[in-house]
Structure formats: C-alpha cells, structure tokens
Amino acid sequence: MMGIRPLLVAATFSALLTPQTPAPPTAPGDRVAAWREDLAIFAREFPAAQKDFDKLYPRARFDEAIGALTRDLAATTDAEIVLGLSRLVASAHVGHTYVRMPTSGWLTFHRLPIGLQWFSDGLAVTAATEPYRDALGLRVTRIGTLTPEMLESAIATYISYERDAWLRLQGQTYMVAEEVLRAVGQVDADGRVALTLARPDGSTLTMRVATAPWPDRTPVTYLVTARNLPPGPTRTDPARYYRYEILPGTKTLYVRYSRCADDPQQPFAAFAQELFATVDANPKAVDRVIVDLRANGGDDSRVIQPLLDGLRARKALSARGHLYALTGPATFSSGLLAAWSLKLMNAVLVGEAPGENLSSYAEVRTITLPNSGLIIQYATKFNRIGNDNVGLEPDIRVTRSIADLLAGRDTALEAAIGR
C-alpha cells in the first residue's frame, strides 16, 4: 500500500498527522475571493481524483455542502471553512482520504501544549510543557465541560476513519486543537481550556490551559522521562525505522518494524540480511520471533519482503506458536498489510486491533489549494482483501492501563514473550 505515510507524533501529541507543507506566508488581500477560488478548485478536482467518488460522496450532498461553505464566506472564519471541508471529506469514512490539519502558514491551527493518550481505563496526559507538568500521568476526566468520551463523539465528524481504533487514535490530536475545541464550544471566553484531572488519591486537579500556535517549540516534558521509566526495546533508538535484538533470557528475537521504508541509516534488505546472519550464527539462541508493528503507519508494502522471505526459509521460526506480531491502533496502511502477511504465515497477532479495514482505499495523492495552502489527501485505488468493512482482529487481545504505563509495563510484548 504505497503512498504518503501519516507521521507518528510520538509522545508529544500521541496521534497521527501529516505536517502541512509550507503555505503562503501571509493571508491573501481579498480573503473572500481567495477562498471562493480555492473551494471552486476543490469542488472540481477532488471529485475527479478520488477513487469511487460517486459511491463515497452522493453528489447532491457534496454540492450542497460546498454551496453552504461558499454562500457567506465573509461571515465565516478560516477555521470554520477548514473544518467544514474536513467534515465533508471525512463523511466517506475513508482513512486515507482527509483534509490535513494546517500546522504552518497563515492558516496555522493552535493547540494545547499537552499530549494525550488513550489507555484501557481512560485518557491520560503523557506530555506537557513546564506550566502543566503536574498533569503528567493523570487521568483526564473533563476537557472543558465534556468527558473525553463525550468530546470524542463531538469531534468525530471531522475525522476520517474506518475503524473506531483510528478515531480514538486521531482524536488524541484533535482533542488538543483549539479550533476544533472552539467548534464544539469548549474554549472559554479568555481563550483558555479547562482541563480536569483525577489524582491517584481520588482528588481532582483543574488547570486552565492556554493554547499556542501549532509550530511552537516550547520544550516539552514527556511522562516516560519525568518518571524515568525504562525504555525497553520499543523505545530504544526511536529514530530508527526498524531495529532488532535478542531479548535477554527469553530466546526471543524482537523486531521493531515502525516504518515501511528504507531507513537512511541502513536499507531494509541489508538489515534483514544482518538479522538473519545473527540468528543463523546462534541457532539455539532464538526459538521465537516477535515483529512489533504497533507504530507502523505504512508507506511501501514491498519493503518488508526480505523479512518475510527469511522467515519462510526458516520453518522453525515461522511455525505456529513461534512467530508473533504486535498490532495496535497505529498499525495502518502498509503496516496493516505487514500484519496480514505475517498472519498468513501463521503468526499469532497480539495486542489491539489495527486502525483500518483490511479492504481499503490507498495509493494516495494530494491536492494543494493555491491560496490557503490547505492540503487534501485522496486515494486512487481500492485494495480488496476478503470482505469489505472487516478489520484485522488480534488473536490475543491485550490492552494497557494507565497503571501499566506508570509501572513501565509493555503488556502486549509481555504476553507474546510469555506464550
């Protein structure tokens, strides 16, 4: 599944976004005329470009939505136009087709300077700038007046998703976007957002959080750093697209495959060759392989082939009960196809469900609107694997709680090692 891969904003915002490419540095002189032109271009080019447009977007409804956005541009804010387009594009529920959140240029959105992440028992703060450091590790009970679950439901209309897992993952970023929060009435008159948190002792902490432009570079403290949590194999050398190690005392070969692309430090074919040379030189050191796909948002599905070929050639490693793959909501696009390929090789899938249907739209391209710089991503192909609207469920479902996080436990990896 080739295309533009969403960027994993790990720890900072705990969600998947693709950064906006540079937009015009200043707003156009005639804002209304500029938006009118951009909307006309979108209305002409998007239907011609998106695969199965007529099936996904009933034409009368599409035209009505464009007409509503165009009718009173002078009285509509830029954010309302962006979110209106987001809602329209997201209405097809195609994970690869969406309006990219503007994070640069004159349309730049704003954000709360915190990172949020869902766990089995709620939403927690996993990153924060210094003024909000006390929030780290606490469970969020309200954002504004809404519980996290209520807020997720309110903002779902702006998010392109096929599976609830992807909505939950993407929602972590949309929940900190000021313009999104304003659209659902959760920004106070002074521009701050009330954040209510539950402490372990049962008491609550309420912070009134100020927003900042999305590109703001104020230093962020991450929970894993603040609590000095052990990095473990999932966070060792995080910049690498992939890495491996034989986990001490387990006879387990752990392979973290976080991006379906050749790492600038080492092509994947060379990586696989080195990995199997290590295995072959120590045949009694490994009797189990775990491929971690939980952070793999895709790119080029062909890249993983040397790993698959090497596993097939070593039947002891690819036999049922010896090969495992870890999946989660961020397993998407070519990352999902990698999980499917491993499952076809008898791998046991462990963790949580990936964020996309097995049969899905892919091979993405983009339209850039000339005046706003707004980018709309669309899909040019439909890949069918089995029945439509079916996800890839783990064989062994393992979730992670906030307490697990604070204890430094990787429950899915532990489950795979302990089988």
In short:
The chain contains 15 helices and 19 strands. It is α+β, with helices and mostly antiparallel strands and about 425 residues long. The longest helix is centred in the first third of the chain and has 19 residues, at about 30-50.
Percent helix among the residues?
25-40%
Mean pLDDT: 93
Which CATH C-level class of the largest domain is it? Mainly Beta
Termini separation comes to 31 Å
Give the helix tally.
15
Shape: globular
CATH architecture of the largest domain: Roll
Content of β-strand: 15-25%
Output the structural class: alpha+beta
* Biggest beta sheet attributes: 6 strands, antiparallel
CA gyration radius, whole angstroms = 22 Å
Q: Give the strand tally.
A: 19
How many structural units, i.e. domains? 2
CATH level 4 superfamily of the largest domain: PDZ domain
| CATH topology-level fold name of the largest domain | Pdz3 Domain
Task: Name the poorly predicted regions.
Answer: 2-19
